Amino acid sequence: MTRISVAVLDLAGTTAREDGVVEAAVRAVVHTVTDGGAPPDLAERFHAARGGSKIDMLRSVLGGDEGLARRAHHLFEQDLLHRIESGHVTPMPGAAETFAGLRHRGIRTALTTGFSPAIRDRLLDVLGWRELVDLALSPDDAGRGRPHPDLIWTAALRLRAESAQHIAVAGDTGNDLLAGTRAGAGIVAGVLTGAHGRERLQKAPHTHILDGVGDLVPLIDSHNESVLASPA
Predict the structure, then answer these.
(1) Gene3D superfamilies of this UniProt entry (predicted)?
(2) What is the domain count for the chain?
């Protein structure tokens, strides 16, 4: 067991409450680009792709049609930005306290998301989180989005983690947990405040299931105390 020194936290659904605006934006743009001919299993495709990059999500929803996906992604960003500016995305209870608690303990924090850098940065400004975290990453910064491990490995490099075992990952989707496990993180925690419920998260590889992001600091404290108490 290794002491946690870096926390990699998902944005929407884990640290920020989005109250369905992502799904609403996806539904709106898919109906637009398909002239009302959205796939009948749109909801199923959307929920299966949650946590990944938004262009990949739209490719999945639109059956792999690259042209439609790129057009939809452009419209999606415009629609979502309007919803963000209208105040539909708010801090999750306990999020700011979690950032402060991690910093107080010397644990470096990265926020990761499937949104583009432009959407991500606007969210950070609206939420007032620019100064609360050490790093914020989108798939554009890392190569691939979740469920690939690239975002977590990029955070590890930039925040100088000694190994993946020093990282705690927390997210609200199965893709977050797959990414954390594939990265080799020491803690991979599902959070029950977002896209996927307990049953779905428990089917994904994980170390813990948390009621909310506010439970992460006590979990890391317990983990690190166990490391200190272990014989050398």
Answers:
(1) HAD superfamily/HAD-like
(2) 2
| C-alpha distance from residue 36 to each of 29, 33, 69, 208 (Å) | 10, 8, 15, 41
Residues lower than pLDDT 50 in the chain:
none
* Whether residues 137 and 206 fall in one domain: yes
The total of other beta-carbon atoms located within 10 Å of residue 86's CB is 9
| pLDDT recorded at residue 167 | 98
CA atoms within 13 A on the CB side of 212: 12
CB atoms within 10 A of CB 89: 21
The conformation of residue 214, written as its DSSP 8-state character, comes to G
Q: What is the structure's pLDDT at 232? A: 57
Show which of 57, 85, 113 is a domain's final residue: 85
How many CB atoms neighbour CB 213 within 10 A? 29
Q: What is the CATH number of the domain that holds 182?
A: 3.40.50.1000
Q: How far apart are the first and last CA of the chain?
A: 11
Q: Which domain holds residue 30?
A: 21-85
pLDDT digits (tens, 9 = 90+) for 17-60: 988 888 899 999 998 998 888 888 888 888 888 888 888 889 98
Q: What is the pLDDT of residue 126?
A: 94
Those residues with Cβ within 8 angstroms of residue 207's Cβ, 6 or more apart along the chain or in another chain:
186, 187, 188, 189
Look up residue 20 and give its two tokens. Answer: 């369905």
- pLDDT attached to residue 140: 93
Whole-model pTM: value is 0.92
Whether 1 maps to a domain, the answer reads: no
Q: Are 179 and 143 in contact (CB under 8 A)?
A: no
